[in-house]
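Problem: given the chain below (413 residues), write out its structure.
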Amino acid sequence: MRRTYQFACIVTVGVLLASFWAGCAEDKTGSLYDPNYKSQPAPTITAVSPADYALAGVTNVTITGTGFSTTAAENVVWFDGLKGTLQSATATQLVVTAPILVRDSVKLRVALFGAADFSNTWYYRLEPAVESMSALDGKSEYATSVATDSSGNLYASLMTYTATTRAALGVFKITMGGTRTSYSPILSSAVGSWTSMKMGTGGAIFATAANRNIIFRIPPGGGAPGVFLSGGGLLNLNELDFDAAGNIWAAGAGNKVFRVRTSDKNVKSFVFTGTVHALRVYNNYVYVTALRDTLEKVWRLPIVSSDSLGVDEEYFDLSAIYGVGKVTANAITFASDGSMFVGTTTADGVILVKPDKSWEPFYPGQFVPTILSFAWASGPFLYAAQSAAPTGVQALYRINTQMAGAPYYGQGL
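Solution.
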């Protein structure tokens, strides 16, 4: 038995060695050259839509031409050295999402499996969907809140930090062209930055500081901030906004929402259980993002009159998406069609909640947490303040939302 086993092993090894050397011999005399091979014709681009430009990382670009494969994986669309993300393919049309590449002149070409040559080159422009403004130093500065005026100028409450300390810098005005000038100094060492700012009555900026029982005011044209209203029942404010009648609505950690008449500084409070992180007046509602019973949600309270708020109702549950204790929403605003932008502490950064309550990450991959504040500029542009201080990225974003913003009522007062 043992000899039979050894003999079988020897035969098996011999067969394997013979096969190996036979394979080597064939490799020696064989060739990859196929004299009958014919390359597929190169594809051709005849039109691109949108015709002028696309938003990098966002826009679906439709390429019309000839010679494309109906098997999507056999087409590759190159934007300079980056591949687009192919969405669909027919023999005459490719739909591809442009990569995150911002350039005035990009070489757009199509490669086809089985074709030796690229298509013709189509020169195209990719513009930023999300642009990091150069108004910050890119190292130690970040904005705690932002506001805009009716001309689209941006006002940012800035901080600077080191590994162990943070210091307020005051409010700076940043024009649409990117010019930065000092607008308002800090109030004091104890109150140096603002958690919320809104342009309001007479062109003044009204502001809150973290958990203060005060509404502050920066005079029109800038200058030293002062106290607009202290006391009157105000409690632990973080956020404020104006309605069309010129009333201020404010809230924070005081389990209340406050209405302040700017004409006589009369204060009326309404019970709201929860810690408010963001507040926005839109379409006769006061919307708030708040933490209640460990859950982060968006709530809204109908404005019946300046002296009456209806019962709060749940509008959108953020904790149901991200998990309990996994999300805070520090910013909220609306487009004119009722779509809601929510700035979060999650990896999505910004989400878009549509009027039917469906939602999606807004411009995925183009934000990092944490989004602290929103303010609409002119046209489709939305400013966002983002900070991961002291270890991460700080930015002021200018976002081409491709939407019109809902009005900020304070700008017209």
